[in-house]
Design brief:
By secondary structure, this protein is of the alpha+beta class. 21% of the residues lie in helices and 29% in strands.
Length: 129
């Protein structure tokens, strides 16, 4: 059974045809989040610290709406436009997880991201018992 999840009207307004997350059986697939202002959907330009904090806050919004949390994340993919941001992104990203309980992960350097952000993160979450 599939469940297509979109945040309530006005929160993280989709800028393309996608759901914020899709539940497929015991797994939740969370669409990649950028540093979007959750009220306007505009990508917030600023330091990599500010962008990464906003990305993680946006992911938390989606997770909470779907009834789960970072504690259940089993896999993440991080996309960055410059690997000089790697350590900064790691510090902020890891602060949202319990030490020693980090999900599997892939980090990819890319030429550009939608909205010209510098970091995007998507998640796979286990929602079973």
């Amino acid at each position: 059974m599939l469940e297509f999840i979109t945040l309530p009207e006005g929160k993280l307004p989709p800028v393309a045809p996608y759901s914020h997350a899709v539940r497929a059986g015991d797994f939740l697939f969370v669409t990649g989040q950028l540093a979007e202002d959750p009220d306007t959907g505009e990508v917030v330009k600023g330091s990599i610290e500010a962008q990464t904090e906003q990305v993680m806050d946006n992911l938390r919004l989606v997770l909470e709406h779907a009834g789960t949390s970072f504690e259940n994340v089993v896999m993440s993919r991080i996309f960055v436009t410059d690997f000089r941001y790697y350590e900064t992104v790691n510090q902020i990203y890891s602060s949202r997880f319990t030490s020693g309980r980090y999900p599997g992960r892939t980090t990819v350097g890319v030429t550009a991201l939608a909205g010209f952000g510098d970091v995007e993160i998507d998640l796979i979450v286990y929602c079973g018992e």
